[in-house]
Every structure is written in C-alpha cells, then in structure tokens.
Amino acid sequence: MNRKDRTEQKMQELFHSHAAGEEGTDPEFMQILQGFIFGDVCYTGSLDNRMRELVTITVLTVLGTLPQLKAHVQAGINAGCAPVEIREAVYQCAPFIGFPKTLNAISAMNEVFAENGVSLPLPRQGTLDSDEERFEKGLAIQKPVYGDEIKDRYAWLPGGFAQAVPRYLTELCFGDFNTRTGMDGRTRELLTVVLLAAMGGAEVQVKSHVAGALKAGNTKEEVVCALVHASGYMGIPRLFNALNACKDLLAD
C-alpha cells in the first residue's frame, strides 16, 4: 500500500471514517497530520491498534486536550480496548499530572462511554481492603523494580518530610493505582513511560520508568515504538528528549 492508502485504511479501522480530503477550512493541515500519524507512524513498529490507542489516550490525558481525547476514546473502543482498561489508562495519570486534569479527562471519557451505551460506573478494580495496605502492597510492587531509590534520594528533606514524601509516592502511585486490576503491570509501566515523556521536563523519571518497563517485560522495541507513536501528539522535541535520556537502556 502507498501512504495515502495506509492512511485511509487506518482511519477506517480507528474512526470508521474516510481520511481527510479537500473539505473543511484547513484540508492541507489535516492531510499532513493524518498522513504522518495514521499513514506513517501507525505502520512503524510492533504495537497493535489497541495498544497504540492506549498510548494515545494516555498522552492526550497528560496534555489535557479533551476534544482529541474524546475522539481517541472512541477510537480505542473501535480498536478493541475494554472500557475498564481505558479508564485505568486515564486514572493512573493522576499522580503525575494532578487530580484536576485527570478529572477533566475522566469527564470527557465518560461522555464517550455514555454515547456507546456503557453502563457507569464501571466495575470496581481496587484490591485494597484497608488504608494500611496502601503502603504494604504498594511497596511490594515498587521495591522489586525501583528499590529504595526515592527514599535514599530524599533523605535530606527537613522534619518529617524525609519519610512522608517517599511514603506518599509508595501509597499513591503504587498502592492506590498499581494494585488495581483491569490492566496488567507490563502495560502500566509502558504507559507510565509515555505519560512522563509527554509531560516534558521529567527525563530523570522517564529513564527510571524505562528501566522499570523493561523489567516488567516490555522489549526495547516496544518502548521505542510507544514513544515514537506518541510523537505526533506530544511533539518531536519531547520524543528526542526521552530517547536521549534513555539511550544507554534502549540502544540495540
């Protein structure tokens, strides 16, 4: 297939619509956009439509671009993503981008679910039986992959913060979110790499989570594929920043 045919095929698969023609106010821009994302990037690398849409949903949640997020929640459904895993992709952004932006993304996501006849609220995916388990079960996920890196790095904080800051990370990121069902740990780590890259300025954390994604079972090619796929949404500079930060981990 040529590039034009690839773009048309992918638009049909994801959006059940034709690729951009001469309609609208900015047909040239839409043709460039769709040609790059859906004619080039979507055909490069090993990730399937389902995983690519989870990557896209994650990046758009980070960026707070709600109209595009709604379009890709629908594309995710069309690509075979379960509503629960779409929700988990959005939920797990909260510790990184904050609760307000995540709430906005949840609202947009739920609009699409309602339009598709998905009954809300979705089934619960939490596995914690008590507040005390937040730390214990979170640490059980965190420590084998990341060790005591954060605890050691912030031992210099004054007062009780040397203990509180690492504990909050363990309890919130790993306890409240990573103990949830609905998405396996391998996928969570891959999406965490993408969301950190999309934030910009978090290259130290990108490298740490690339190492975590590889330990969780993702291949180097899958990590690079996810980052390259995200580039049409987060921009080329953030792609290069992430790749440069992780060169020693991802080099073939």
Automatic annotation (TrEMBL):
Domain Carboxymuconolactone decarboxylase-like: 27-110, 164-247
Origin superkingdom: Bacteria
Gene3D superfamilies assigned to the protein according to its UniProt record, in alphabetical order: AhpD-like (1.20.1290.10)
GO molecular function: peroxiredoxin activity
PANTHER family: 4-CARBOXYMUCONOLACTONE DECARBOXYLASE FAMILY PROTEIN (PTHR33570), CARBOXYMUCONOLACTONE DECARBOXYLASE-LIKE DOMAIN-CONTAINING PROTEIN (PTHR33570:SF2)
Annotated protein name in UniProt: Carboxymuconolactone decarboxylase family protein
Native organism: Candidatus Eisenbergiella merdipullorum
